[in-house]
Design goal:
mainly alpha; globular; 0% strand
Length: 304
Amino acid sequence: MRPAHLALALVVAAVWGVNFTVVEIGLGHFPPLLFSALRFLAAALPAVFFVGRPKVAWKWILAVGLVLGVAKFGLLFIGMDAGMPAGLSSLVVQIQAVFTAGVAFVVLGERPSRIRVSGMFVALAGIGVAAVDEGTSGPLGAFALVIAAAACWGVSNVLTRKAAPPDALNFMVWVSTVPVLPLLCLSLLLEGPSRDYDALRALDRQGAGTVVYVAWVTTVFGFGAWGWLLRRHPASTVAPFSLLVPVFGMSSAAVFLGESVSPLKWCAAVLLVGGVGLASVTRGRPEVVHPVDEGAPEPVLGRS
C-alpha cells in the first residue's frame, strides 16, 4: 500500500473512531431517535441525487436500511443516551464480527475455521471483561442495548453480503433513505413531539455540526474513501485498519469527554480487538469486502 493510501486508511479509522465522541456530544442536543433520523436524512440528501440509481435490488436496500439504520443505530444511540460511554461503545460494537459469523453460519451455511472460532471466543472474553467493568461503574442495561445493536449490525452484514453491492457509497447513500421516516415516527411516538420540537428549536452550531459530521464526514467521506481503498487493495490489506477504530474511539473520548480508561477496559480492548483480528483471518485469494457502517468493514467470512 502506498504511503498516501496508508494515510487515507488511518484517516478513515480515526474518523470512524472519533464519530462515537461526536455522537455523545450530539446526544446532548437531540433525543437519540431524532438524532439518528437527522443523521440519515443528512447522509441521504443531497447525495442521493449524485450517486446514480441503486445498483442492487430494492429488497436489499429496504432490508439493510431497516436492520442497520432503524434497529442498529436506534439501539446504539439509545444505549449511549442511557449512559453507555462513547469510548466503550466504540469497542463493544466490534463484537458484530462474532454475530456476523454466527448469522452467516446459520443462514448461509458458512462454516468458520478453527482459528476464527478461537478468535470469536477471545472476543467474547473481551466482552465479558468489559461487562464486569461496566457492571461496577455504569448501567448494564445500556451495555446490553449496545450489544443488541452489534447483533443487528451482524445481521445487516449478512444481508449486505447477499446483496453484494458493487459500489459501497452508492449502496450506503440509498440505504440512508430508508430509516428516516421510521425513525422520525418512532421519535414522535416514544420521545414526544414537544421534546423533538424543543431540540430543533434550540439547534445551535455545535448541534448542527454533530449532524454534519456523522452524516457527511463519517458516512459520505468515510465509506467513499473505504470503498475506494477496497477497489485498489485486497480486503485482507485494508480490513485490519478497522481494528484501530476503538483505539481512536477510546482515545478521543478520554481527551474530549474526560472518560477514564480503567485497566479492565484496556484488558477488554486487547482481548476484543485481538479476537476480532483472529476472526477476520482469511485463507486463499482475498475478495473485496464492502463496509456497511462506520466503525468497521463487513467482517471477512467465507468470501474474503
